[in-house]
Design brief:
The protein contains four helices and no strands. 62% of the residues lie in helices and 0% in strands. It starts with 21 loop residues before the first helix and ends in a 5-residue tail after the last helix. It has 92 residues and is mostly helical. Helix 3 (53-62) packs across helix 4. It has a domain at 26-85.
C-alpha cells in the first residue's frame, strides 16, 4: 500500500486512521449514501463486496449481523424521517 505523502496533492490515497468508533463510521457511510439516493440494498453491497475494501473490512471485523443491523436501522430511521417530512410531522 502506498504511504500518505503531504507533498503529493494529486494522489487520492485511502489510508487507515487509528482510533475512532467503527459503528459511527458505518452509520456515517450509510447516511452519506442515503443522501445520494442509494437504496438499502445498494448500500448493503458496499459492505458485502471486497472491491469496497474499507466497508468490506468493517463487515469482516465486526460481523455481518452487526453491520447489517446498523444498515437496516439507519435506513429505517431515514425512511421514517422522510415519511414524517412529507406529512409535515416534526421529529423534534
Amino acid at each position: 500500500m502506498k504511504e500518505y505523502d503531504t507533498e503529493d496533492p494529486f494522489a487520492l490515497v485511502g489510508v487507515a486512521v487509528s482510533g475512532g468508533e467503527p459503528q459511527q463510521l458505518i452509520e456515517a457511510v450509510v447516511q452519506e449514501y442515503l443522501m445520494l439516493g442509494w437504496t438499502p440494498k445498494q448500500i448493503g453491497f458496499l459492505f458485502q463486496k471486497p472491491f469496497f475494501a474499507g466497508t468490506f473490512r468493517l463487515r469482516e471485523e465486526l460481523g455481518a449481523d452487526l453491520v447489517d443491523g446498523i444498515v437496516e436501522r439507519i435506513c429505517k430511521e431515514w425512511a421514517q424521517g422522510w415519511e414524517n417530512a412529507q406529512k409535515g410531522v416534526s421529529n423534534a
